[in-house]
Structures are given as structure tokens and as C-alpha cells.
């Protein structure tokens, strides 16, 4: 039953994608290679040095490092709050 639902979703998605592509084909056919090379999007990529700039990667790395250090600190603080026999007390064991 689950396989049937997954198969139906797959085919509906595939048909929807085909319909969208079929509707956009005339607009894509009208584009010339010269227009696509001079578009604002591609000029911005060339000017900035690509989609994955060193600054963006560095900033993401720095933020990830800060989040991890905060989570480690919180984890160490919470570790002191619980005793070793915490789960035994919860279960009612002695």
C-alpha cells in the first residue's frame, strides 16, 4: 500500500514537472546565447568570483563554530544538574 502511494506521488510529480517544462519551452527557445551571457545574474557571479565565495564560507564556518561552542557550554552546565542515578530515580529503582 505504501509503495503504491509513493509510486503515485512520483508519477504525479513527474507529470507536473513535464507540464511546467512544456509550458516554458517556447520562452527558452527564444533566448539567444548572447542574451544569457550578458544577463545580470551571470555578471554578478563573475564580479563576485563565483557562487561560493571565500567570505561566505568563512562566515558560515565561524557561525557554526560559535553555535557548537555554545551548545557544548550548555551541555556541560546541564550535565552537573543530573546525578549518575537519575534514571534509576525516575524508574523507581533503588
What does this structure look like?
This protein is an all-alpha fold. It is built from 5 helices and no strands. The longest helix is centred in the first third of the chain and has 29 residues, at 2-30. It is flat. It starts with a helix and ends with a helix. The model has no long low-confidence stretch (mean pLDDT 79).
How much helical structure, as a percent, in the residues? Answer: over 70%
Instruction: List the uncertain runs.
Output: none
What percent of residues are in strands? under 5%
How many strand elements?
A: 0
- Compressed to H and E, one letter per element, the order equals HHHHH
Give the end-to-end Cα distance, rounded to a whole number of Å: 47 Å
3D shape: flat
Assign the structural class, choosing from mainly alpha, mainly beta, alpha/beta, alpha+beta, or little secondary structure.
mainly alpha
What is the residue-averaged pLDDT? 79
Largest sheet: none
Number of helices: 5
What value does the Rg take, in angstroms? Answer: 27 Å
